[in-house]
Amino acid sequence: MQGMTASTTNSATNAASQPRHGAGARWRVLAFFSLGFLVSYVFRGVNLGFAPYLTRELGLTAGDLGLLTSFYFLGFACAQLPAGILLDRFGPRRTEAVLLMLAVAGSLVFARAPGMLGLAAGRAMIGVGVSVCLGAAIQALSMWFPLSRMPLLNGLVMAIGGLGAVVVGAPLSWLLSLTDWRTISAGMAAISFGMAVLLWFGVPDVKRAGKESFAEQMRGTRQILSSERFWRVVPLTLLNQGIFLAVQTLWVTAFMRDVQGLAAGESARLVSVIGFAMMAGCVGAGWAARHLEHRGISLYAFAGFGMIGFIVIQLLLMARLPFVPLGLLWGAYGVFGSSGILTYALLARRFPDALIGRATTAMTLTVFLATFVFQVGIGFVLDFFPLAGGHYPVAAHLIVWAGLVVIQVLAAIWYLLEKHP
């Protein structure tokens, strides 16, 4: 009943408060915030290409790489609750543009770092700097478009951001053959600065209907974090997104190399396949969710189907079936690994309009804390096994993946137990 009331109130408020700018302004909002999310996605996965160079130049172990790469996710996660308050207080345009300047500084620190400490500090700064790119996009779209379009629009944002997953595959590998990782990091600083300028001057402001006091905002955050309807959705979502991101942004090439015996070039191509498949999955799932709701299949049920499908794909990859093309399996990995994004549209229906920014960032907090834990944890477990010719044993990877599958199955059971989604 509470969810229905919030959804109904949200829809009415959203419809009544649509900004009275032209259609061009709406699509500019969609384009610019999607590009901001694209920049954040490149930052997520860029260490996938940097890893061999960092290992050679700085002598990093698998555990070191996992820890270093995960500092992005830790900074990202720690910024989420404050970022949600900023979004609901100052709006998506100002909040994202200002925070992106921290990503600029972090990229420059990373580019000039002489060792692990500087690299980790740069990654953490970048994580904080791009921490609102997804939440700001979702909030901006909820302000400019009807809520009925949110599954599709969220999918479009994720698809455009998913280009970042493509970029850190073959294109990044090609760039690294022309220049070094420090120059690319400095280039990312310039791109981030340009993105901040684009958002600040290119997106129109929306007149906000009164601001809550800080105490009221904190009460709203507590309301979200104490809601059973929030925590019914979160566990499976954070595992779906956290595991997918932890593997996609660092460990997928190690799995391809050690378990599937693929060369570096073929792995880079498949990383790009995952990125393209994720893009297609985001748009396709958003489109399908909207149409299936007209036929009586709820968004909750459809999101659950996608996240459970991701578990099945992981099992198929572990089985190493010789008759199933790897391109098909990794493509399916990208499609189903993106299905957790649908639950962001669920949150927009479950909470009042004034809480959407905080609800979104609270969800993202759990996802990126999970990504941090899984990225570090995978490296930690792999380091228990001896390296042989630069490779970890097949059993090491399968043990890691089996453990991840088990906890996803438990979360899926919890998700399916909700009686009235």
Description:
- The protein contains 18 helices and no strands.
- It is mainly alpha-helical.
- The protein has one domain: Growth Hormone, Chain: A.
- It is globular, with a radius of gyration of 21 Å.
- The termini are close together.
- The N terminus is likely disordered.
**Nearest-integer average pLDDT:** 84
Fraction in helix: over 70%
What is CATH's topology name? Growth Hormone, Chain: A
Rg result: 21 Å
Q: The biggest beta sheet, please?
A: none
Which H/E pattern describes the elements? HHHHHHHHHHHHHHHHHH
Q: Looking at this structure, what is the CATH superfamily?
A: MFS general substrate transporter like domains
Q: What is the class in the CATH system?
A: Mainly Alpha
Strand content: under 5%
Topology:
Elements: H1 2-16, H2 23-58, H3 62-78, H4 80-90, H5 92-112, H6 116-129, H7 133-144, H8 150-167, H9 170-178, H10 181-202, H11 214-225, H12 228-258, H13 264-293, H14 299-319, H15 326-337, H16 342-350, H17 356-382, H18 394-416
Helix pairs in contact: 2-3, 2-7, 2-8, 2-10, 2-12, 3-6, 3-17, 4-5, 4-17, 5-6, 5-7, 5-10, 7-8, 7-17, 8-13, 8-16, 12-13, 12-17, 12-18, 13-15, 14-15, 14-18
A few lines on this structure:
The chain has one domain (2-205, 214-416): MFS general substrate transporter like domains (Growth Hormone, Chain: A, Up-down Bundle), CATH 1.20.1250. It has 18 helices and no strands.
Characteristics:
mainly alpha, Growth Hormone, Chain: A, disordered N terminus, 0% strand
